[in-house]
Amino acid sequence: MRKYVKYSTDELMECVDVFNVSAETQQKIRSLLESEKKAPDAGNFFKYYNDKSKVVKFEETIKNKMGIEHVLAVNSGTSALIAAMVAAGIGPGDEVIIPAYTFFASASAVVVARAIPVITEVDETLTLDPAAIEKNITKKTKAILPVHMLGLPSKMDEIRAIAAKYKLKVIEDTAQAFGGKYKGKYLGTIGDIGCVSLDAYKVIGTGEGGLVMTNDEWAYTRAQSWHDAAACWRPDRYAKERKTGELFCGENYRMPELCAAVGIAQLKKLDWINDCTRSVWKQLRAEIKLPSCAKFVEANDEDGVCGYTLGILFETTEQAVKAIEAKIGLGGLAAKDTKGVRDWHVYWNWEHILEQKSATSEGCPFKCQHVGKAQKYSVDMCPKTKDIMRRLATIGISPAQDEEWASEMASKITKELNKLF
Ligand SMILES: Cc1ncc(COP(=O)(O)O)c(C=O)c1O
Known about the structure:
The chain is of the alpha/beta class. The protein has three domains: 9-41, no CATH class; 54-267, Aspartate Aminotransferase, domain 2 (3-Layer(aba) Sandwich), CATH 3.40.640; 270-420, Aspartate Aminotransferase, domain 1 (Alpha-Beta Complex). It contains 15 helices and twelve strands. Helix 7 (156-166) links the parallel strand 4 (141-144) and strand 5 (169-173). Helix 3 (54-66) runs parallel beside helix 10. Residues 76-78, 102-103, 105-106, 147, 173, 175-176, 197, 199, 210 line the site of pyridoxal-5'-phosphate.
């Protein structure tokens, strides 16, 4: 027999290297790993057939924290959205209402599920406009996908009422708002299914990762089947009766154990992060004295925002650009006619959707035989959203920024804006 270990100390040290620690610390960790007899052959890096699965622990912890019955950890926010579409039975010929202001993954998830995204206006809260939703509902509509952009809760009461009236599913894109709330309930737990992204730029991150959250056992079962092609045969499933609609070919969106381990640790500071940024967000709103041509973006629930971005709406694009270009701490790509670096979050830059591009020449799903009236997309289809986004400037807030930082920032921005306007 040859000597073989699955994960040697050298290989595990590659994982430690991800954290950019000094050579001295690396040496200490190496010694510790080597001193543990089992360490070189440590761990089963797989969710199933594993009593100590980090993915299972991560899912259980989130279930308890969010007060939701089912949580499925996946490998990205995009995967979570696609799995949610499949879970909700959305497919060829169906239409899904999405906001005109969102990262285009919300739109592409619908397309990957072979359904049609219906791009819909947002209002000045930067989230779906309920009046515009109703105008876009057709016989083909299956779901509404509110996106809690920049950690700002969507109008969930109104959206749920519309969904109930037309018997539609609500799938919340909570990629940018994990831990945020609407009227005391965690975002992503209010609709039928909630999707979270845990990529490197989100409230907490696992490097790459995502979550599907639901109280609907059937939706969970179908999401599970889709996220793991072999789900029907896993230990927790095979002994049970398989129902019609549970067995179908899926993908592999399973969250890796290493990502879940990071997630368990990150989760402990989720509320702390949101509390810090929310309190600075509120302080800046209270202390910045805006000129008469500007106002703050109103939130649908001030106490539930994640608070890492404060929006300011100017009366005109020119004013927003002037404020951004003065370099006083305000950002905002959509306001500017940028070449190269475009704001991927505004619909008029989603070339592949607007031009109905597909991976194959048949043009599915846009030209699918099941599609009703063909969608007409154009850069000007949502004039209200375009106008709002072109007047928006933002202040980014990190959990490291405290009360003192907020006071200094507020007086600087007040002074500079009042000089400019
Ligand atoms: C609103 C929104 N939805 C979906 C996603 C996709 O998440 P992921 O990058 O984890 O696939 C993102 C990521 O930026 C997002 O901002």
